[in-house]
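Hi C.,

You asked whether I'd gotten around to modeling the 820-residue construct. I have! Everything is below, sequence then structure, no commentary in between.
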Amino acid sequence: MQTMNAYQPSESSRPQQSLLALLLLFFGSGCAALIYEIVWLQMLQLVLGSSAVSLAVLLGTFMGGMCLGSLVFPRVVSRRWHPLRAFAVLEAGVGVLGLAVLLLVPALARVYIAGAGAGLPALGLRGAVAALCLLPPTVLMGATLPAISRWVELTPHGVSRLGWLYAGNLAGAVFGCLLAGFYLLRVHNLETATCFAAVINGLVACAAVGLAALPGTNSAARDMRAEGEGARTEIATDKPIGTGMMAVYLAIGISGFCALSAEVVWTRLLSLMLGATVYTFSIILAVFLAGLGLGGNLGARLGGAVGRSRLRLGYCQWLLAATVALAAYLLCESLPYWPINPTLARSPWLIFQLDLLRCAWAILPSAVLWGASFALALGCVGQGPDPARLVGKIYAANTLGAIVGAVSASLMLIPVLGTQESERLLVVLSAVAGGLVLACSGALRPRTILVGLLLGAAAVVVLVRVVPPVPWELVAYGRYLPAKLGTGTKLFVGEGINASVAVTQLSDGERIFHVSGKAEASTGPRDMRVERMLGHLPALLHERPRTVLVVGCGAGVTAGSFTTYPAVERIVLCEIEPLIPKVVASYFAQENHHVMQDARLRLVYDDARHFVLTTREKFDVITSDPIHPWVKGAATLYTKEYFQSCRQHLNPGGLVSQWVPLYESTAETVKSEIATFFEVFPAGTIWSNDEAGAGYDVVLLGEAEPLRVDVGQIQKRLNSESYERVARSLREAGFRSALSLLGTYAGRAADLAPWLEHAEINRDKNLRLQYLAGWGLNRYDQEALYSQMASYRRFPEDIFVGKDEWGQALRRALSTAESK
């Protein structure tokens, strides 16, 4: 039944220039929405952690709010509201709530950290925090499309306009994604990005109010109000859903499931191939959104009568089965083997262009078809008393499928089935969705449907067989695969909930642990040195370490070094990827002293930052060996706030050691890492893992009190019977005495102050390090960087206090190194 006293659109109320203006408004709305999404997810990851579980909670809440908004709006907002004014209120509300989230998260973080625990209660608390922050603004975002649908008629012409607005919104989202990833967060910070998005919301709201006041867009609403003044608004009741429409809802829900599942799977594969930087993720998301926008425009043009739209929606889903299989083939059999050496390009812009090309080549066809599917589904709804309700149901079905797809792909499909079987499942589901719509369209004869389904089933069997497994070389060598082919043999490869891992062996017997396309640890002399240094340096310089926290398992060598100390009673190992301690560490059991079987070990599967923030336990030693800072999410383990939290969790006399790579890095990146650490530990020191004076990586050491080192006393301890295992562990890494270990001293905060004078401090509110590091991951300037640092080194009389022969020998060794 038609509602009285409601805004009724007419062709005269929607001139072409108004449509163009509305396209610009939707562009701005999409731009602001993506800036918020990137900012909010980054803010809440700092509190809730970066594990797959936390990300699933965040994404589920974000998209759940969009789904809820699309369903609730037509039921609570009267049709008497002018659509453009309703749209303006929603946009203004998003801007206000966006600023509120910026202020709310720090306050919630304090409450959350005080009450966080482990298990299901902790997961529920994470969800509650995410919901409290994200649901209010995302509900308003989800309501914008149903709100503006009241401005159009649900006719073929009107639906095409709605499809254009959907495409315009996605075009804005692409721009916002790139703007946030490559400028706002790289150059500025979370506050600046949030305020910029809020300003866009305000401008869009003002423009929408102004557009609503124009005579051409307001005349119909004014006439309706005059005719129905004082009349009671009747609530339109929904008609029963027919078989054909139910098939459309199911198909568009499956389409949303496949789209977000594929995005998760393909992001995992593309990040292996391109390097898992923030820029890679921005490029992947931008390409995916651009494809959806192009598809929305295409679907709007292809849509027509209800029967024709349903047929084309079914064909679109069948085409998706083919493009998903094609993308799987390209990502595993073609693109990884392109002869590209990233180290040859000194400018990151050239690499970004190649990355954009490879992303588009693989995922753009499917993204276009998913965007077209949504626009075609809008054309399938027919006419009704309230366009917002009909559009809201389509939007909600698609978003609900997307929620299930994003969560299940992250937590179940990849870790349980693997990427190959997950892609095969998406091929089958796309074909099923297409067959369902075609069978229930009412536009085809039963015989035609039967023949089509049989042919489709045969095609699916072929397509499923085409989908290849992920090559183990891609998991191991990542972006260097073309240059590394044939250099090793596979011992293990696995796809975990948070990362893909591999263990390989070279012809000389050296074993290497790879995570997300890069080498993380090995049995080679250079890696064994730094892995043992991270454990032995703080443990030896501490008088009697009893409790230890190890951040990052790797091959388990650092954690295993603490098992040799007789006083150590408890070793807490925090690792985000369960596959690494459960499987990978067993390949390095001899090197890690069988730490996984040690009774003193307690394994914690969580984001390390989240554990440090929420635990009430304090430690004598905290050692951190995170992945490279250019990997998205890793920079949270290099912030000033994280180091402050580590310091607060130290017992009196406790020490913190931190790994810093000099390779795949730039001077600005290394300076930022060291300067940030020294902000919290102003008496901190640097210890080098160099090769004949050539830089490779370093260990930072910090403590609450000034460091005092007596070389003779440490050597005496190593000579004792109780420390025999400690001495043997050091010898295995090439350290024959306390002198050779302490001779790696490379400087301290006071000496390096001039070099670090203008360094960027990596903070939670900007995470500047991941943008600096991602800009220079193809650089190999470690020798020059170490030479710069070493030029500031002076013998520290107040640190090395021993005056015996060992102390004098150390002075001579360091003086010789300084003179070189």
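If it helps when you're writing up: The chain has 28 helices and twelve strands.

Thanks,
B.
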